[in-house]
Amino acid sequence: MQWMVLLVVVLALAWVVLRQRSGPRLPPKPKIDPRRRLALELVERARQARQDGHHAAAQAMALKATWLRTEPPLGQDDPPEDLNPNDAWHLKLVDEIRLGFGAYLQLPDRPYGACRYAPDVMLPFPKPAIHAALLLLLDLSAGRATSVHVEPGALSAEMVSTVERCLALLGTFVPLDPADLPTDPQRNEEVGKALP
What we know:
By secondary structure, the chain is an all-alpha fold. The chain has one domain. The protein has seven helices and two strands; from the N terminus they run ααααβααβα. It has a two-stranded parallel sheet with strand order 1-2. α4 crosses α5 (about 125-140) and α5 packs antiparallel against α6. The termini are far apart.
């Protein structure tokens, strides 16, 4: 019986010595949510697609990555076709689209920045998604739509004006291939005005 106690003590001491020699234990790496990992992968693939000239595919991947970053309920891995003002995740997506479009417009060296018209494939997200998000914001700010997540009157008249300007700017993004739309401002204006 004494030899068993002695064996347990020796094993315990050996374990303590080994722990001290191996140094401090690092905390385990945090697990990344699979959807967040997919969003990160989509962002990288979208960047690569843009570099390869596959702009429409890059827009779709960027939209899906943005949707996944809003952490929607399980099973809703694709962005919604129709935006619901009473769905908190849809409103998060609308806000992310608004921020992405605004950030794109503020880029000082964006392609076609000096021109009136630009190809719609240069947008950060598909043009219909940006249009739907801006329209929902306009409807909410103008009182034509309500949401359980937005207080009535919380969006100002200045917001209505800003969203209207953004919609007008969105209209200057035309469905032309970048190779077909000149970057010379005068020539760009001529080509853009000739579009239906």
